[in-house]
TrEMBL record:
<protein>
    <submittedName>
        <fullName>Uncharacterized protein</fullName>
    </submittedName>
</protein>
Length: 46
């Protein structure tokens, strides 16, 4: 009976890690987009 919960925890962890990576890359691309738009607006003003 003990082997089942540990197996479930492992699958839970392996499921959470890709989700974290995905949310991190989404956040990173958002930050990069904001920085890019700021650079573009500065270039337009010059």
């Amino acid at each position: 009976m003990n082997s089942l919960p540990s197996r479930q925890k492992k699958s839970e962890a392996s499921f959470r890690i890709p989700v974290r990576i995905e949310s991190h890359t989404k956040l990173q691309s958002k930050v990069e987009f904001v920085m890019l738009s700021e650079v573009l607006s500065e270039a337009k003003e010059q």
